[in-house]
Amino acid sequence: MTGGQKTLIDACIDEKVARYVASDWSFDYRGLELGDHPSKDPMIHINAYLEEKENSGKIKAVHILNGSFMEAVMGPFNPFFQPKAQVYRYWGTGDEPMEMTTYADAAAFTAEIAADPSAVGFLNGELSFQFFSDYR
Amino acid sequence: MKQVAEVYERVYGEKLELERLGSMDDLKSKMTAIFQEVPEEPYQWMPMYYL
After folding, report:
1. What is the ipTM of this complex?
2. Which pLDDT tens digits describe chain A residue by residue (136 residues)?
3. Measured between CA atoms, how close is B51 to chain A, in angstroms?
4. CB proximity list for A49: less than 8 A, separation 6 or greater
């Protein structure tokens, strides 16, 4: 995840590619320390590597922060959401925001971002869950 | 989570019971402990890191 991406970033720089879309498609992890979220440690390293390359004008980084994938956190990946048993187990107050995007929407956003040369930096958006039920 | 439950009930006509398991600090302690115990089994700990 880390070594492979660095190799890809270097190859993009060698080929004068203008923008590199980092392998994020996740929540905003920039406030995390190494070890806080083991799955995000590689992206903390990649973000630092991209910042270094960006600061020397070699490439621009794009970070797509769509939160988690809805099909995952509202599906079997999340054992605490059990619609068949009609129970949702949680921690906290229950009012904490949960960022999520569907696979299809994340792909559509990515395609739009890839086609827009001005789309750089950390990119995310936000809608309430009520929006989706009203749309049904 | 509360908003998810409200929308679920509205859309599917079925009540989703909310069961609180503890505070966010409790979650952090649990997920960290499981990661340290079985780091080689990501499906045991990874979902909790996304809650």
Report:
1. 0.90
2. 799 999 999 999 999 999 999 999 998 999 999 989 888 999 999 999 999 999 999 999 999 999 999 999 999 899 999 999 999 999 999 999 888 899 999 999 999 999 999 999 999 866 656 555 555 5
3. 7
4. A5, A6, A9
Q: Is A17 exposed, middle or buried (0-12, 13-18, 19+ CB in 10 A)?
A: middle
Calpha distance A8→A29 (Å, rounded): 21
Cα–Cα dist A30/B4, whole Å: 26
Count, residues in chain A: 136
In chain B, where does DSSP find H-type helix?
Answer: 2-12, 24-37, 42-49
Q: Is the separation of the CB atoms in A109 and A64 below 8 Å?
A: yes
Q: How far is residue A129's CA from residue B10's CA, in Å, rounded to a whole number?
A: 12
Are residues A78 and B9 in contact, defined by beta-carbon separation less than 8 angstroms?
Answer: no
pTM for this model (two decimals): 0.83
Flag if B10 and A133 touch (Cβ within 8 Å): yes
Could you say which of B16, B50, B51 has the minimum Cβ distance to residue A86? B16
